[in-house]
Write a structure and sequence with these properties.
Radius of gyration: 21 Å
Number of strands: 9
Oligomer: single chain
Helix content: 25-40%
Structural class: alpha+beta
Length: 236
């Protein structure tokens, strides 16, 4: 009898939560880079900057940190004075985006980092050998390599979902054992569409940061070759 009552109670609770619109933190609305959320955070950052005499509400990071994740927003500095609560899609609220600031000197702009990519790279780093280097399958160019994922315990070649399209993006490694996402596919697509004049030596990742809310985090620098195709720029 007690068991029957317990089951009934559980079912009733589940129905109640569903009816109340219970959110798990991984609901679709917590995964999308809503424009209104970006605008709200941008206004809060701008207001904080004015009131603080030019300071930004950011967390401290090492100067060598990847430029795209170097300035994460510290929501504790703008909530509740400038913003009611953290956006639903932010890491702080159970979402999958880290809110960051780009162009901190000239034009501080709120952007997003897709943390699902970070999770994948973290798992790869965990599976690398004790010397910090993964097994190499082939050389892409001198200094950039394709990993042998099967030797690392994966079922096959690993990739990540592009934050810009339905494309799967490859994972590459450099000679120092670091792993990165290869954004060449997305950059090549934008190169075909842009009317901007781009010269070899220019870092073309701005094509992604200028056109999308999400930054190409965990990437190597890219430029163009004489055929206007994206290529790695390792000396940048």
């Amino acid at each position: 009898m007690k068991k029957y009552k317990l089951i009934t109670l559980v079912i009733t609770l589940m129905i109640f939560l569903a009816g109340c619109g219970y959110k798990s933190g991984y609901e679709p609305e917590n995964l999308l880079p809503y424009e209104d959320q970006l605008e709200a955070v941008q206004k809060a950052v701008d207001s904080f900057r004015v009131d603080s005499g030019g300071l930004l509400p950011i967390k401290t990071r090492d100067m060598e940190t990847d430029q795209f994740i170097k300035y994460p927003i510290d929501f504790s500095k703008i909530i509740p004075s400038k913003l009611g609560k953290a956006p639903a899609n932010s890491f702080e609220a159970g979402g999958i985006y880290q809110y960051v600031i780009m162009d901190v000197e000239e034009n501080p702009t709120v952007k997003l980092v897709d943390l699902r990519i970070a999770d994948t790279l973290r798992d790869i780093n965990y599976r690398k050998g004790i010397n910090g280097f993964g097994p190499i399958a082939e050389t892409i160019i001198e200094g950039v390599y394709k990993l042998d994922f099967k030797k690392m315990g994966y079922d096959g070649e690993l990739s990540v979902q592009s934050p810009y399209s339905d494309t799967q993006l490859p994972i590459v490694a450099t000679g120092d054992g670091e792993v990165y996402v290869d954004y060449s596919i997305e950059l090549n697509r934008l190169l075909q569409e842009t009317e901007e004049q781009i010269e070899p030596g220019d870092d073309i990742r701005f094509l992604l940061t200028d056109n999308f809310a999400i930054v190409p985090a965990y990437s190597l620098p890219y430029t163009v070759n004489e055929q206007n195709e994206p290529v790695f720029m390792l000396n940048k």
